[in-house]
Specification:
Number of helices: 5
Number of strands: 0
Largest sheet: none
Helix content: over 70%
InterPro entries: Mycophage_PG1_Gp7
Pfam families: DUF1360
Protein name: DUF1360 domain-containing protein
Shape: globular
Keywords: Membrane, Transmembrane, Transmembrane helix
Number of domains: 1
């Protein structure tokens, strides 16, 4: 892979993570995303929006087209972008902070 392709891959992986996280875990500006999620309810689309990993698979498709050309390359990059976004999500998760109960 040439330098330009690596740059495109990194940018695309960050974009896939950002969009997947926005749709699956955030309220969005003016609560638009949370309202959309609520309106979709338990439909297939609603369930899709509840799963970061499912979203990253579908969101990474157009980004794979941006990164490389060639059908086989696009399939591999499609899965790699979703995998990179999934790894980023695992590392970026806010840690759970245990607060001991106050002594009474």
């Amino acid at each position: 892979m040439e330098t330009n392709t690596w740059f495109r891959f990194v940018i695309a992986a960050l974009a896939v993570w950002r969009l997947s996280h926005l749709l699956a875990a955030e309220d969005g500006p003016w609560d638009l995303i949370v309202r959309l999620r609520r309106n979709l309810g338990t439909t297939i689309w609603g369930k899709l929006m509840d799963c970061f990993y499912c979203l990253s698979i579908w969101i990474s498709i157009p980004f794979a087209l941006f990164v490389v050309s060639g059908m086989l390359d696009r399939i591999v990059v499609w899965l790699a972008l979703s995998g990179a976004a999934s790894l980023a999500n695992k590392f970026i998760k806010e840690p759970v902070i245990f607060e001991p109960p106050a002594d009474v």
